[in-house]
Each structure stands twice: as C-alpha cells, then as structure tokens.
Design goal:
Oligomer: single chain
Strand content: 15-25%
Strand order of the largest sheet: 1-7-6-5-2-3-4
CATH architecture of the largest domain: 2-Layer Sandwich
Radius of gyration: 25 Å
Shape: globular
Helix content: 40-55%
Number of domains: 2
Order of helices and strands: HHEHEHEHEEHEHEH
CATH superfamily of the largest domain: Endonuclease Chain A
Number of helices: 8
Distance between the termini: 79 Å
Largest sheet: 7 strands, mixed
C-alpha cells in the first residue's frame, strides 16, 4: 500500500519526458559525430597521357600538373607505391600535403631507394617511414592511393574524437606506367589512370595490396 501511495505521488510523466529527451540528445550527438565524416559521391574517371603534345607549352595544363591537382585534394592520407621517384614538383606536392596534416606512407624499391637523384633520400631525411622489400625482386608498382576508404575513415574518426576539424573526402587511385621521374613526365610516352569508384572495389584491391606490403616490408 505504501509503494502504491508513493507511486501515485511521483510525477512519472515529466520524468519519462526528461529521460526521453536525454536519450534523443545522445542519439543526435552520435549521429552528428558520424555525419561529419562525409565522402564525396561524384565519380572520377580520368586518363592522363604523357606525350609530345602534353609536353608542349601550348598545352593548357601539363599532364604532371593534372596529377598534382589530384594530390592536392588529399584530406587524410596518401599511400604511395613507386618504383623510382626523382621529380621535384611531385616531391613538393607530397610535402605540402604532409604539412597540411595528410598522413604520408611510402613503399619503394630497395635498389631505387639509393639511385641517382632519388627523392626517397629526401623523404627519409625528413623523417618519413619508407619501406622496401628485403629481396632483390623489384617492387615495380606505380600507384598512389589518396584517402583510401579505411585509412580516411580511421583518421577522420580519430580527429572527431579529438575534437579536430574533419573534411569531406573522395577516395582516389592513380595508377599507370609512369614513374615519378623527370624522364617519365617530360620525356617518355606514358599513362596514368585516375579513378574513384562509388563501390570502391578497385580502390580497395589496391589498398589491400599496399597494406600487405606495408606490414611485410621492413623500414629502410
């Protein structure tokens, strides 16, 4: 009887409303937290050709400048697998991305790591973790992943938890025949395909290979 009397005296309706409001607030906060991690949905399919025309001063935008424009879109991460790398402009583009907070990871070939004019030594002297296969078999990949899905999502969640600003991103893959060298950009006939698929199957396949190499190859 005492409990029944107390129950009739407790204002259950206002309490229920207050509890419901608290739960809704928490749900909204969680939703807002994850809504800040946005991915661009516009699909990109581009083919960059390096030939005598794109090397001409009359060509509106050089092929290398087109590649740099994609590097400049990076918000969270750049994963580079490059056989040989000597070009100053691409080196500067990657360093600028790093300076604005983009994580940079590099996999290259052991022999090319110390080749003439290589920029890998400059990256290493700047403190970057560079990894190579320990065998004499060539690491002959030539691709770069910009904001790969898992990497971008993990980093953006970390930024959110640290109350740092997050940005809209788009996962991109640049892959083709061209090494990032002066000869490759300004002398050879080469190609580079740029893509961002909404279902990410191709990008995820490349990202899986990069992560496999990154976890397998030692730091040089």
């Amino acid at each position: 009887m005492l409990l029944k009397g107390l129950s009739s005296q407790i204002p259950w309706m206002p309490i229920a409303v207050a509890v419901g409001a608290i739960i809704c607030t928490e749900v909204i906060c969680i939703a807002k937290k994850h809504s800040r991690i946005k991915k661009k949905t516009e699909e990109v399919i581009d083919v960059i050709i390096f030939n005598e025309n794109t090397r001409s001063q009359d060509f509106p935008t050089s092929a290398m400048e087109s590649m740099i424009s994609y590097i400049n879109q990076a918000q969270y991460s750049i994963d580079l697998a490059m056989y040989t790398f000597t070009n100053l402009e691409m080196f500067q583009a990657l360093m600028e991305a790093h300076m604005r907070g983009v994580r940079l990871r590099i996999v290259t070939d052991l022999v090319m790591m110390t080749s003439t004019l290589t920029k890998m030594i400059d990256f290493k002297n700047a403190g970057f973790d560079i990894r190579c296969p320990s065998s004499k078999v060539m690491m002959h990949h030539k691709f770069v992943l910009i904001d790969a899905p898992k990497a971008a999502n993990d980093i953006s969640l970390q930024r959110t938890s640290n109350k740092l600003k997050t940005s809209t991103y788009r996962s991109l893959l640049l892959s083709g025949s061209v090494n990032w060298t002066n000869q490759g950009f300004h002398g050879n006939w080469e190609n580079c395909i740029v893509m961002s698929q909404n279902d990410n199957r191709v990008i995820i396949a490349y990202a899986t290979e990069f992560e496999r190499m990154w976890s397998t190859f030692p730091t040089v």
